[in-house]
Design brief:
The structure is a homodimer. By secondary structure, chain A is an alpha+beta fold. In chain A, helix 1 packs across helix 3. Chain A has a nine-stranded mixed sheet with strand order 4-3-5-6-11-7-8-9-10. Chain A has a two-stranded antiparallel sheet with strand order 1-2. In chain A, a hairpin with a 4-residue loop joins strand 7 and strand 8. The radius of gyration of chain A is 23 Å and the shape is elongated. The first copy, chain A, has two domains: about 60 residues, Arc Repressor Mutant, subunit A, CATH 1.10.10.10; about 130 residues, Umud Fragment, subunit A. The interface between A and B is large, with 55 and 55 residues. The first copy, chain A, binds a DNA duplex through helix 3.
DNA sequence: GGCTTGACAGCACAAGTGTTTGGCGGGTAT
DNA sequence: ATACCCGCCAAACACTTGTGCTGTCAAGCC
C-alpha cells in the first residue's frame, strides 16, 4: 500500500508552505488563511485549513489554535533551518584576559540582543545562551577572530577539549580557551600555537560557559 | 516648552514595547492588543491602541492597519538591531576545489534559506547575497572550517584585501581567499600566515562573490 | 475660572480570521 | 458494485481582534 512518507507533501502543500515562508520573510508576520487562499487561488478557506492541518501534523509548520496569523514555518525542504528566530542577550566583550561581566550582572532583557541563526537555534532554545563579542586575537587558531561574536551556553562544567569561557578567580579575568581537566590542575589551552597553555589549580577556575557558535561579520 | 523627544517614551510604552519584543521572540508572532492589555494589566484596549499609535509614530514599531497581530518591533533601546529578519538562499556547497553552482542556476525562491543575523543584515538587505555551506577544510586558513556557512555578496570585482570566492578557470575550482590585484597577476592570499599565496594570471580568475559573513555552529 | 492637551477607562461595533459541517468526485481496496 | 478515504469545495458560524466613540481626570496655560 502506497503511503505518503511523513516528509513528503503534495504540490499544493508545497505551494502553501513556500508562500508562508516568503510572506513571513517579507512582512514579519504570518499570512491569514484567507491570504493564502487568495494568493494561491484556492476556492475555499477550508481547503487551506485542511492542508495546514497536514503541514502541522508533518512538522513543517507550527500553529497556535485560534490565534490569528499564528503560523510559524519550522523547516525547509531539507529539514534544517526554519523561520524560527532566537535572540540572545549580548552581555559584553571578552578580551584576551579581560573581565567578563557575570551573566547575572546584566539584565538580559535590557541588553543588546543578537539574532541567532536557526542553525544554532537548538541550543539557544534552551534559554541559557548568551553572546559575547571577542576582542583580540588570542583565539585566532580556534578560528575565532577579533570582532567575532561567540555564542555561549551557560554551564559550569566542561568536558575535555571543549572550548569554554573560563574565569580565573585569582586574576579576576576571563578567557576563551580549550578546557582540559588534568588531575588537580586544569590546562587552558589556547588554540593559537604561538601561545602557551595556562595551568591553574582546578579550584581557581570557574567555567562560565561553553562556546556553541560563532558569528563573524566581514563588512 | 518641554516636549518629549521623539526617542523617549513613557514607562508604559516601554513596558509595552518590551512585552512585544519578548512575545515575538518567544512565540514567533506578535501579541494582540488584548494580549498586551491583559499581560500589563491595562484596563482598556483603547489605552493599548493609543500607546501603540505613539510607538508607531516614534518609530519603535511598525504596524499594518486592520491586520491581526501585525506588530513588528523595529529597534531596541539602543537603537541598533531590531527584529528585522533577513533570509538568503543557501545555494549549495563549496568544497575543496569543487564546483560552485552559479547563483543563476538555482532558483533563489525555491532554495533553502538561511536566516542572517542583523549584524550582517546591512548587506543582505541588498538582495544579492547568498550563502554556501563549506565542505572540507580547505578554507581553514581563512578562519573558515568544515561545516561553516559563508555569506557571499554577489559581485564580479573585488578590492585588494577583500575575501572573495574566486574561481580558477583552468582548474575549474573555487576557493575562498583574500584578493590582491597585482598588475597582470592576482595574488590569492590565504588568511593563515603559514600557507603560501597563490599567484595566477588575472584572466584566469573570476570573482564570484565577496565574503561578508561567517556562521559556525559548534554543537 | 475656562480652555486645551495628554493619558486613561469603558464599551460597543465591525472587520478580520479560524473552524465546522455537509457535500462532491475520483480514486482504491474489498 | 459498494464502501471508503482523500482532496477539494461552499457556505455558514463563532471567536478573535482592531477601531471608534464617549467620558473622566489631572496638569498646564491664558
Amino acid at each position: 500500500m502506497r503511503r505518503s512518507s511523513p516528509d513528503t507533501i503534495s504540490a499544493r502543500q508545497t505551494d502553501i508552505f513556500h508562500y508562508i515562508e516568503n510572506f513571513v520573510t517579507q512582512y514579519g508576520y504570518s499570512p491569514s488563511i484567507r491570504d493564502i487562499q487568495n494568493a494561491l487561488d484556492i476556492s475555499s478557506t477550508s481547503v487551506v485549513a485542511y492542508n495546514l492541518r497536514i503541514l502541522t501534523a508533518k512538522g513543517w509548520i507550527e500553529r497556535e489554535d485560534k490565534i490569528s496569523r499564528g503560523i510559524r514555518p519550522k523547516r525547509n525542504r531539507n529539514g534544517n533551518g526554519g523561520i524560527d528566530l532566537f535572540r540572545v542577550p549580548l552581555l559584553g566583550t571578552i578580551t584576551a584576559g579581560g573581565p567578563l561581566p557575570e551573566p547575572e550582572e546584566v539584565d538580559p532583557s535590557s541588553a543588546d540582543k543578537v539574532t541567532v541563526p536557526p542553525d544554532l537555534a537548538d541550543v539557544s532554545r534552551l534559554g541559557d545562551v548568551y553572546a559575547l563579542k571577542v576582542r583580540g586575537q588570542s583565539m585566532i587558531d580556534a578560528l575565532i577572530d577579533d570582532g567575532d561574536i561567540v555564542l555561549l551556553r551557560f554551564q559550569n562544567t566542561a568536558e575535555n577539549g571543549q572550548m569554554v569561557a573560563a574565569r580565573l578567580l585569582d586574576d579576576n579575568a576571563v578567557t576563551l580557551k580549550k578546557f582540559y581537566h588534568e588531575g588537580e590542575q586544569v590546562r587552558l589551552q589556547p588554540a593559537n600555537q604561538t601561545m602557551s597553555p595556562i595551568y591553574v589549580p582546578a579550584d581557581n577556575v570557574v567555567v562560565q560557559g561553553r562556546v556553541v557558535g560563532v558569528i563573524r561579520s566581514l563588512m
